[in-house]
Write a structure and sequence with these properties.
The complex is a heterodimer of chains A (about 220) and B (about 210).
Chain A (H helix, E strand, L loop, with lengths): L10 H17 L3 H14 L1 H12 L5 H22 L5 H34 L5 H34 L3 H8 L2 H11 L4 H8 L3 H23 L1
Helix pairs in contact in A: 1-2, 2-4, 3-4, 3-5, 4-5, 5-6, 7-10, 8-10
Chain B lengths: L4 H13 L6 H7 L5 H14 L7 H8 L2 H11 L5 H11 L4 H11 L5 H12 L10 H11 L14 H4 L7 H17 L8 H7 L5
The chains are: A mainly alpha (about 220), B mainly alpha (about 210).
Chain lengths: ~220, ~210
């Protein structure tokens, strides 16, 4: 078992460092280098993004649709977010990704609804021009609406960059043991290390972890309301 | 017997921090159905604040070869062909003649001149029209009619600046004089007709 000596480096710092290098390269106009760091960042966060897609869309999308949404999110991060991201911390990066996930899951749902609603009539015999024209207009309006949302998304990402990082604030609001457990969780410590460091049983670590996350969810609602 | 939320959240975080790539679906499946929403909320919160695990090299190689990631990067890297080549293929795949595409385009924008729209589309497919002058609205409308993501119709990115500049060679003065002469004649010519809605769609640029 790994021994704990002193404060281990924050795992999160690795991400922050890659993000910092990305921002530096982008500011310097070195897009190839910026792209390299950007892709490293989202490769490291591949599982986070995948699980976020699943959890946010689990009530609305089928597993196949979730896969489609995940694919669109990855392309969106590589193409759109690469250009529009203006934040300076991983908290802002994750918020921006979360927002993109919401949009892309919505897109997949919209497409599925349109497909179900219009595929049969469009291919039925005797389809007239009016029906095709009406459908063209519906799809066009949906595309334009999505584009406006995407544009406002870029603006909101900029606003996010001006805000204090939610986590910097929220972690300070946690109290007592749950704050200590959560701090070590965010350092990527194993449960055995946390048990040793705080003199707790495994069940107590799990209980405090659960309460800390519960508190954070409430704090997030307050923070963004 | 189903596991408690506390237990599942605890195990998920342990597995996450150890870089074992926990699958959220498996954890949701292990929860009591009545508690799945709460578990999903808790795990969503964790995912937003979780540190990125310090993956070992094998795991990183595994992630880099994930089909979804490979496909996404390949799609983003692909350089599109000129629109003059892409559009006819997509149009024919949708089973539409140029005339029909033009008619449906003008219907979307409540315009009456389908014949002129067909002429524009023909010029576009013959590569006689600069694809970068197309308006974003037009691209969206063509995407809507062909039932494709309009981003597939976007113009190719312009050449890098370094490729578009050239060093002035001997004789450049002669060219400059010719340009000045052409500009003088243009200044004396009557102003062109103002663009109408159809012109703006095809020639007005992305914001047109």
């Amino acid at each position: 078992m790994k021994m704990v000596t002193g404060d281990p480096p924050l795992v999160r710092n690795h991400d922050e460092e890659i993000l910092r290098r990305f921002l530096t390269a982008k500011r310097a106009g070195d897009l190839a280098e910026a792209r390299r760091y950007w892709r490293e960042l989202f490769t490291l966060n591949f599982d986070r993004i995948n699980n976020m897609v699943i959890v946010y869309s689990r009530r609305h999308l089928s597993p196949d649709e979730q896969q489609e949404a995940f694919q669109r999110v990855l392309i969106g991060i590589d193409e759109k977010l690469f250009l529009t991201f203006k934040g300076g911390s991983m908290g802002e990066w994750i918020n921006a990704v979360k927002r993109l996930i919401t949009f892309r899951c919505g897109d997949v749902k919209d497409d599925a609804v349109h497909y179900a609603k219009h595929t049969s009539p469009l291919h039925a015999e005797g389809e007239d021009d009016d029906r095709a024209d009406r459908y063209d207009r519906d799809v066009f309006k949906a595309i334009e609406k999505r584009r406006q949302e995407d544009e406002s998304f870029g603006e909101e990402v900029e606003l996010l960059a001006e805000r204090q990082d939610f986590l910097d604030w929220a972690v300070l609001q946690l109290q007592g043991k749950r704050a200590e457990v959560f701090k070590l969780d965010r350092q990527g410590r194993s449960v055995e290390e946390i048990q040793r460091e705080l003199g707790m049983t495994r069940d107590a670590v799990y209980q405090n972890r659960h309460r800390a996350i519960h508190d954070l969810a409430k704090l997030r609602e307050d923070y963004y309301s | 017997m189903t596991a408690t939320i506390e237990q599942l959240v605890g195990e998920f975080i342990d597995s996450w921090n150890l870089g074992r790539r926990p699958d959220l679906r498996e954890y949701l499946a292990r929860a009591d159905p009545a508690e799945r929403d709460e578990l999903a909320d808790q795990l969503a919160t964790w995912l937003e604040v979780a540190p990125t695990p310090a993956y070992d090299e094998d795991t990183l190689t595994q992630i880099r070869s994930e089909p979804a990631l490979v496909a996404a990067l390949a799609a983003a890297d692909a350089q599109p062909e000129p629109l003059a080549q892409r559009l006819p293929v997509l149009r024919q795949r949708a089973g539409l003649a140029i005339g029909e595409l033009a008619r449906r385009l003008t219907a979307i924008f409540d315009l009456s001149d389908a014949e002129r729209a067909a002429d524009y589309l023909t010029r576009l497919e013959r590569d006689e029209l600069d694809e970068r002058r197309l308006s974003r609205r037009l691209i969206d409308a063509i995407g809507a009619i062909l039932r494709i993501d309009p981003d597939r119709l976007l113009p190719r990115p312009p050449l890098a600046a370094a490729q578009t500049f050239f060093r002035a060679e001997d004789g450049s003065q002669r060219w400059e004089m010719r340009d000045i002469d052409a500009l003088s004649r243009a200044a004396l010519a009557p102003a062109p007709e103002p663009m109408d809605e159809l012109d703006r769609l095809f020639l007005g640029g992305p914001a047109g």
